[in-house]
């Protein structure tokens, strides 16, 4: 079905530097980002030799949260088609995804929720092609989480944080009210404290910018991060 070069790439062990982690409740989740799996598909199958269609996009729910932000949830069905070098269809895959959008305006929450659902369905469809698309992350016997944590920790250490007048780095204990950012946690985002700042981390983070800005975070172009200075005197 696939040529030897494609099979070689597909059978290669997943590089731990591609794996991201986030917390959901008391569970640590490992995942690949949406742009990452698209770039991998272009590398493995070739530009123009694969495509996807949105078979279904359906709104699931809509409500206002405690911060008076709109919360709109979607589910999507995405179909993947892969072709050979003569553009003859080799195989197709299909899977479902879920997404939620949280924003001050109804239009922005619809946009974020729909995009997140499509990205989730796309990633789930592609993972059926093996380890390079994150299928191995579902294998509980593997140690992907620890590898990803070490990689993310090193990346965070190397990144330059936004300038701060407070040079005293706080310890790793949380010194902020998690409930204040529940809307972001509902979007599968997480808040971490670094060098006197709160930093937003998670998957497809820029597509959720309206929800993040609604919580008072600002975008730093140099570090490519959403940040917010930790208030002084917060216990």
From TrEMBL:
It comes from the Bacteria. The keyword Cell inner membrane does not apply. SUPFAM superfamilies: dsRNA-binding domain-like (SSF54768). InterPro entries: Rad52_fam, Rad52_Rad59_Rad22, Rad52_Rad59_Rad22_sf. Residues 142-171 are annotated as: Disordered. Keywords: DNA damage, DNA recombination, DNA repair. Transmembrane segments: none annotated. Residues 144-171 have a biased composition (Low complexity). PANTHER family: DNA REPAIR AND RECOMBINATION PROTEIN RAD52, RAD59, DNA REPAIR PROTEIN RAD52 HOMOLOG. Belongs to the RAD52 family. This is DNA repair protein Rad52. It comes from Malaciobacter canalis.
